Amino acid sequence: MKPRIHPESRPVVFRDRAADIAFLTRSTAHSSKTIEWEDGGTYPLIDVEISSASHPFYTGTSRVLDTAGRVERFERRYGRTAAPRH
Description:
By secondary structure, the protein is of the alpha+beta class. It has two helices and four strands; from the N terminus they run ββββαα. It has helices at 56-59, 67-78, and strands spanning 10-16, 21-27, 34-36, 42-48. The protein has a four-stranded mixed beta sheet, with no helix packed on it. The longest helix has 12 residues, at 67-78. The protein is elongated, with a radius of gyration of 24 Å. The mean pLDDT is 82.
């Protein structure tokens, strides 16, 4: 690797607002907010709206979509398409 071209990586706390979970990891992101972590250290804090702790794909709480119901609702709203031309 070439020296002095990569951004500095340091410990940062990311807090998932939806799940109210925080985790300490390394990042190059900057933040003016700080938080005191479990180990007694103070780290930059970055709030995120969604992470693997709250995303339906990772939590397995996604709902099953009723595609047949969606088609029927579309047809009720907009009517059936015109008959095919011969």
